Amino acid sequence: AAMVQKYQSPVRVYKHPFELIMAAYERRFPTCPLIPMFVASDTVNEYKSEDEAIHVIERRCKLDIDAPRLLKKIAGVDYVYFVQKNSLNRRERTLHIEAYNETFSNRVIINEHCSYTVHPDNEDWTCFEQSASLDIKSFFGFESTVEKIAMKQYTSNIKKGKEIIEYYLKQLEEEGITFVPRWTPPVACKSESSTSHPRRPVSPAINIPESATKEGLSNKEILNTSSSPSEPTAGTPDDKLDADYIKRYLGDLTPMQESCLIRLRQWLQETHKGKIPKDEHILRFLRARDFNIDKAREILCQSLTWRKQHQVDYILDTWNPPQVLQDYYAGGWHHHDKDGRPLYVLRLGQMDTKGLVRALGEEALLRYVLSINEEGLRRCEENTKVFGRPISSWTCLVDLEGLNMRHLWRPGVKALLRIIEVVEANYPETLGRLLILRAPRVFPVLWTLVSPFIDDNTRKKFLIYAGNDYQGPGGLLDYIDKEIIPDFLGGECMCEVPEGGLVPKSLYRTAEELENEDIKLWTETIYQSASVFKGAPHEVLIQIVDASSVITWDFDVCKGDIVFNIFHSKRAPQPPKKDSLGAHSITSPGGNNVQLIDKVWQLGRDYSMVESPLICKEGESVQGSHVTRWPGFYILQWKFHSMPACATTNLPRVDDVLASLQVSSHKCKVMYYTEVIGSEDFRGSMTSLESSHSGFSQLSAATTSSSQSHSSSMISR
Fold first, then answer.
1. What fold characterizes domain 5-175?
2. Quick one: average pLDDT of 612-625?
3. CB atoms within 10 A of CB 658
4. Which fold has domain 316-506?
5. Which residue range or ranges hold the CRAL-TRIO domain (predicted)?
6. Exposed (0-12), middle (13-18) or buried (19+): which is 155, by Cβ within 10 Å?
7. Which position among 389, 502, 565, 650 has the lowest Cβ density within 10 Å, counted as fewest Cβ atoms?
């Protein structure tokens, strides 16, 4: 089976001018003592331009790959040959390197691209980037072994690349070479030099403070950060992660882990208009799935949809917890642990969970827990800045003193499980450590109820102390500084966390009140969710009275691939009959599924298609609009998209087969919102719509002529 591995490096910044880096780089040929496997290299082709600005050199490199003898024997080779083509442009100050394998090129395809360029904000610094792909078609049945060897060799070479440049820079310095002059055009005649002169880069030094103020950093901070570009602003498509920034803010990652982060981040920038999570948050999802990029992408997309649906991004700024919570929820943030992680203290034993659920309902409790998690993310960022090293998780201290049978009240446990589930799904890898203190006798009962819902990775971080064990060796002092141990645990630190206590029954709400409240919270979002099955599309009816109205839509494809259609009909479709519920509409917590188009209706006779079908892939956000030509009934339809075989070869592509296997039980999920805007309102707000990049811009032309139907739909790909 063919497998393609991709690698994309962060940007490595050398604080040396391009010309000096080139002098160092050239010293690694024809052989280099630091790379023992690099046995020899011969120049095959060479080209120099007359003015010496361009120098292209093609080398054939001989590598002694560190592979098992048996494998070399089977393959029948001792050495592997690569072709490497270097194109140096001294005028533009760039070096581009392309390399590919010559040996086994029909079985294995390796491509690598590297570039050395001038740092955009400092012309005396040099940036290095590399990307590569490995595609193993076949290798005598040893495909996965070869893949492992190749990846291992490759990643160790990535690490070496930097050492090699630094080694030769040092060598140059010892020889007294610390400066290499820039290329200048040969002065043949005046006119020529004056034409080529403006092409030299003009010093962009002033950019630094400018971009920094844009990113909200004071000049003082720029001088302090050793990492080159100040923190990148989210969402600029060409913003790249540099190696120093990763080390400082995200931690020590292996080359493949860096590559996964960069690729997933790139994918998000291309597909998700709107809020892209911060780098450290993307990294949490990758860690939660052991850096399997596809699995991480799936849970991250689900979480982004969930955040949008429940407006989680605004929770801290817009939601005020009800007074009952502020008075009776016995938890709060309390300084930090010995590792610099934010510390959250929860006096669960003192808390009347039953009373809180009865007074507030599950939703408000869940929302409160979400706001705590959002605050945790914020504190991690803060501590990363303060402590000068990456801090991406928090420590939770749970005091169970006072835990009793009341805490095992079923609806309370159910609420707890649901909260755990939501937190696990949307805040992975945020719990650095969980200290459970003063666990009483009923605790094991609660633990057996709760633990199956907790991810294995998370469970490893639990430390449980019975009675007063936490005061002994291996106890609390190993994790938390003596000065901040809370008073209620016998420490000296005043802890602001509310004491909890019983919620007065007068605050309880009736079952009906709670029900209504819960319903309201669930539908608070303007989005509807729908399930789409093979053979059962989801359809929405829109009645148009004024011929030139505009139907607008905005939907996210949460799971599976779908086809989106719009139809028009002069007569109203029969509403789905309530008695034959099974046939027509399925309403489930997972979303609605309604069919409106009658089975006996014929396309072209009873209804017509007014837009060409749009295929939308999993994870995409689609916004668009349609200017209606006629009054009557419009039907928006989301339909299951089944994979056609690849047209050119008639063979199914591997990716397609895999995708069709992954769509479990042939069910897709869509979250949608539609609205009809009268044409007069629409024209008035044309400019505002254009600025929101919603793909409405082509409409200004469209609304004027109505000889044919017009639409625009934009997919954020």
1. Alpha-D-Glucose-1,6-Bisphosphate; Chain A, domain 4 (3.30.530)
2. 82
3. 11
4. Phosphatidylinositol Transfer Protein Sec14p (3.40.525)
5. 321-497
6. middle
7. 650
Question: Are 623 and 553 a contacting pair, CB within 8 Å?
Answer: yes
691, pLDDT greater than 70: no
Q: How far apart are CA 216 and CA 56, in angstroms?
A: 43
Are both 5-175 and 316-506 of the same fold? no
Alpha carbon separation from 444 to 408, 441, 467 (Å, rounded): 11, 7, 14
Q: Which residues of 423-439 are buried (b: 16+ CB within 10 A; e: fewer)?
A: bbebbbbbbbbbbbbbb
CA distance 325 to 498: 10
Distance CA 272, CA 286 (A): 17
Tokens of 304: 């982004």
How confident is the model at residue 284, as a pLDDT?
A: 95
Confidence of residue 93 (pLDDT cuts 50, 70, 90): very high
Provide φ and ψ at 348, rounded to 5°.
-60, -35
214-272 pLDDT per residue, tens: 333 333 333 333 333 344 443 333 578 889 999 999 999 999 999 999 999 999 988 87
pLDDT for residue 184: 93
153: burial class by Cβ within 10 Å (0-12, 13-18, 19+)? middle
For 274-307, the pLDDT digits (tens) are: 678 899 999 999 999 999 999 999 999 999 988 8
Instruction: Tell me the angle at which helices 18-26 and 143-174 cross, rounded to the nearest 10 degrees.
Output: 110
Is the confidence at residue 612, as pLDDT, over 80?
A: yes
**How open is the CA angle 659-665-667, to the nearest 5 degrees?**
80
| Pick from 674, 418, 415: nearest CA to 539 | 674
According to the CATH classification, is domain 243-310 in 1.10.8.20? yes
Give the residue from 383, 411, 403 showing the smallest Cα distance to 444.
Answer: 403
pLDDT of 480 > 90? The answer is yes
Q: Which CATH class is domain 526-573+592-642+665-688?
A: mainly beta
pTM, two decimals, is 0.66
